[in-house]
Predict the 3D structure of the following.
Amino acid sequence: MTIQPTRLSDPAVRAFVAAVNAHDRAAFLALLAPDATMSDDGADRDLDDWIDREIFSSHGHLEVDRESRGGRALVARHRNDTWGEMRTRWAFTVGQDGKITRFETGQA
């Protein structure tokens, strides 16, 4: 059963999913700390290149199936025009200012 983005527990993660699904790059970038980092399948990636390739230029979309760790860990179906749909895991680190400092994703 899919969890609607508006019902996700953590405000930063909720806004992250909403920005991805709306294809709103400006809103997405506003959620990130200036020195934010990310990894995909355990390997650190260049954030700007990854979000362009996996989310914005390929019409990425997230459907959240489960959340844990107070809403900072998700299992979701991520789909885009490049890879189709796959079951993925997401983990977020959020600073005291509410900005995402790191996110990690990969196949679940």
User: Anything to note?
Assistant: The CA atoms of residues 37 and 102 lie 5 Å apart.
